[in-house]
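EI: anyone free to look at a 124-residue chain?
SC: sure, send it
EI:
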Amino acid sequence: DVQLVESGGGSVQAGGSLRLTCDASGYTDGTLGWFRQAPGKAREGVAAVYTGTSLRILAHFAEGRFTISEDNAKNTLSLQMNSLNVEDTAMYYCAATEQLVPPPHIFRASVYDYWGQGTQVTVS
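SC: here you go
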């Protein structure tokens, strides 16, 4: 079974950085992504990667500030977040599917089969 466990969330001041990590045990390959959900708002895609490739896709608000990376040896997915602002406050989720999701749909939550419990990021 695939299990996703996020870590690395916390509280940070505006302008600061955090690095989130997703431990993806039992996962082989396909599409991995980060999503976030703020209170009262819909879940939105942040970044995604096709495992084993150099192709990375970032949401517009993440470009220039966030970096997604994977470590195949450790079976982990990371999200380095810099220049955080209060609008980045949300619960962040790791998601996975063994499908190669076409780019137009890569931030559609319904295409992902596996989800972690989330890690809270609070920016003040």
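EI: The first strand starts at residue 3 and ends at 7.
SC: 👍
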